[in-house]
From TrEMBL:
This is Serine/threonine protein kinase. Residues 10-184 form the Ketoreductase domain. Keywords: Fatty acid metabolism, Kinase, Lipid metabolism, Oxidoreductase, Peroxisome, Serine/threonine-protein kinase, Transferase. Its main location: other. It is found in: Peroxisome. It holds the Pfam family adh_short. Pathway: Lipid metabolism; fatty acid beta-oxidation. Belongs to the short-chain dehydrogenases/reductases (SDR) family.
Length: 303
């Protein structure tokens, strides 16, 4: 393997990099020559407490290997402080990896506002705050790479994770729009849905599989998406255990009804199979493509 993907003179923030996947990403970026801000609040998986040693240990590891890194102990909800830290330490910001995360798993009927709010705050508001604080710097320098950490729990749902699934798929909605808004400024924005053996998944994944799902198997994709070599934007990738795949929306061609004559629930019921039939399905890549069948239906009945 050649070392063509390098980050000399590039500054990377990895949030929640004191352990698990974030630590692996930070080590990988540093190995590729990046100056890394290793952010971590150092709390529990449930988002309680704080401990500076998590980020400090990873910085020590990076420095021991000859790399460049600074620790940051702020919460991602204070994103502007993390970005300011990058600017103070290294003078610029090129890549943001929004990785920090917590879990407050509960079935919906037992969900409390505190569980809902804290998961929203760390994943959604935290990713927003860090990215928002970095965004205008990226625009000014006409270069940036942003990676959001989604989850299969958002894409497919997962029992007991309504708050987490909401937050994680919300980040993909954010990815899609930021990809559009960032394109002119060479800011590319992608999302990953990783699987890795970390403290977050310990006890949930069978031990033999857990051992094999090493966090560092997720990082090559993150480093690629964070690199100048990457031209991808708006993508969503499932990744883990040495495998990477891309996810896209698929929509049936659907059923059309006469909007002038009107139609009722019985017509919907009678056409249910057609509405849900994925034969020759469409894969709209944007809003205009998504409107195609709807517009064709209007035209059919109005022309
Ligand atoms: N491990 C998996 O299989 C998996 C699956 C899907 C998604 N994810 C996501 O990947 C990311 C990393 O998770 P992980 O598995 O490495 O878990 P982890 O608990 O090892 O890492 C999360 C890190 O985020 C930090 N953190 C939490 N709240 C923070 C805050 N407010 N500010 C700054 N740092 C904070 C924690 O201290 C921790 O070090 C998370 O967003 C998680 O939701 C993980």
């Amino acid at each position: 393997m050649s070392d063509t993907i390098r980050f000399e003179d590039k500054v990377v923030i990895v949030t929640g990099a004191g352990g698990g996947l974030g630590r692996a990403h930070a080590l990988a970026f540093a190995k590729a020559g990046a100056k890394v801000i290793v952010n971590d609040l150092g709390g529990s998986t449930q988002g309680e407490g704080a401990n500076a040693s998590a980020a400090d240990k990873v910085v020590a590891e990076i420095r021991a290997a000859g790399g460049t890194a600074e620790a940051n102990h702020d919460s991602v909800t204070d994103g502007e402080k993390i970005v300011q830290n990058a600017l103070d330490a290294f003078g610029r910001i090129d890549v943001v990896v929004n990785n920090a995360g917590i879990l407050r798993d509960k079935t919906f009927h037992k969900m409390e506002d505190a569980d809902w709010d804290l998961v929203y705050k760390v994943h959604v508001e935290g990713s927003y705050k860090v990215t928002r604080a970095a965004w205008n710097h990226m625009r000014e320098q006409a270069y940036g790479r942003v990676i959001f950490t989604a989850s299969t729990s958002g894409i497919y749902g997962n029992f007991g994770q309504s708050n987490y699934g909401m937050a994680k798929l919300g980040l993909y909605g954010l990815t899609r729009t930021l990809a559009l808004e960032g394109a002119k400024s060479n800011i590319l924005v992608n999302a990953i849905a990783p699987t890795g053996g970390t403290r977050m998944t310990e006890g949930l994944i069978p031990p033999q599989v857990f051992e094999q799902l090493k966090p560092e198997l997720v990082s090559p994709l993150v480093v690629y998406l964070g690199s100048e070599a990457c031209k991808e934007t708006s993508g969503l990738f499932e990744v883990g255990g040495g495998w990477i795949g891309k996810v896209r929306w698929e929509r049936s061609l659907g059923a059309g009804f006469d909007p002038k004559a009107g139609f009722d629930a019985e017509d919907v019921a009678a056409n249910w199979e057609k509405i849900c039939n994925f034969e020759n399905a469409a894969h709209p890549a944007n809003n205009i493509e998504a409107m195609k069948e709807m517009m064709a239906n209007l035209q059919k009945f109005t022309s």
